[in-house]
Design goal:
Blueprint: E1 5-10, E2 13-18, H1 29-44, E3 50-55, H2 85-96, H3 98-105, E4 110-114, E5 118-119, H4 121-128, E6 131-135, E7 139-141, H5 155-163, H6 165-174, E8 178-179, H7 180-185, E9 191-193, H8 198-210, H9 214-227, H10 232-265
Parallel strand pairs: 2-3, 3-4, 4-6, 5-7, 6-9
Antiparallel strand pairs: 1-2, 7-8
Helix pairs in contact: 1-3, 3-4, 4-5, 5-6, 9-10
Length: 266
């Protein structure tokens, strides 16, 4: 994995760290591809029970790195193979945005450990996670209005779902920077901690999730994701099915663990 993305394993917890601290972990081509790869690997690795995403240094993610062309340097003049510049930009960005899709859809809990400022595409990454634990020094800024952009990395979808359309429109259209306390009060951050205990508290929760009933969490997250769009009746059907699947899977795991313990003791 590239140096721009650091991977750490602590038991069943996978920590993915954006590592461009000199640029507040702003996204460019060198970081977005390995970040998407890291999320894909975490999603398919059965040893991982919980994923934590954070930033190196004093920030989480400042969004796209405009000084580096926003990560779009690979776009070349129109050609028959890859199409117009607009088409090339779409394909590149959509591929990079898999990071947010994977964090939202992978069948295991994900936590954004927001250790400082988050803006632009960074709010999409944070919003994609199931939980957002933030330091008091964290801030929140949509920032897309500053560059005349519509929003990416799922930011408009996630924050409309999390906060409701009224608050989401306020955040995106007015583009006002929120302090950690203000963001917590609006429901943007799940928990708010003093900076010096953020990592310890986040990892405490992450290990609790990783050591918990993984099949239960898998189907619980599926239910919660379904509830964002499904009809009432379809959601009831899915809950009934997933309840049986999760409890049977958990019971089987416990039986196997008990049997293994008995065999070892014998």
């Amino acid at each position: 994995m590239a140096d721009e993305v650091l991977i750490t394993n602590e038991g069943g917890v996978r920590i993915i760290t954006l590592n461009r601290p000199d640029r507040l972990n702003a996204l460019n081509g060198a970081i977005m591809a390995p970040l998407a790869d890291a999320c894909a690997d975490a999603a398919r690795d059965a040893s991982v029970g919980c994923v934590v995403v954070t930033g190196a240094g004093r920030g989480f993610c400042a969004g796209g790195d405009l000084k580096d062309g926003g990560g779009d340097k690979a776009v070349v003049p129109a050609n028959p193979e890859s199409g117009s510049r607009a088409e090339q930009s779409f394909v590149r960005l959509r591929g990079f945005m898999e990071t947010a899709r994977l964090l939202h859809e992978m069948p295991k809990p994900t936590i954004a450990m927001v250790n400082g400022p988050v803006a632009g595409a960074g709010i999409g990454i944070a919003g994609a996670c199931d939980l957002r634990f933030a330091a008091r020094s964290a801030s929140f800024l949509t920032a897309f209005d500053k560059i005349g952009a519509g929003g990416d990395f799922g930011s408009t979808w996630f924050w409309t779902k999390i906060l409701g359309t009224g608050v989401a429109r306020e955040l995106f259209l007015l583009g006002e920077k929120l302090s950690g306390e203000e963001a917590f009060a609006k429901g943007i951050y799940t928990r708010l901690f003093d900076d010096e205990v953020l990592q310890a508290e986040t990892l405490k929760a992450a290990h609790r999730l990783a050591d918990g009933p993984r099949m239960g969490f898998r189907y619980m997250k599926q239910n919660l994701n379904n509830a964002e769009d499904w009809s009432f009746e379809a959601q009831f059907d899915a809950e009934a099915l997933n309840m049986g699947l999760s409890t049977q899977a958990t019971a089987m795991i416990w039986r196997e663990a008990r049997k293994a313990g008995e065999d070892k003791g014998g």
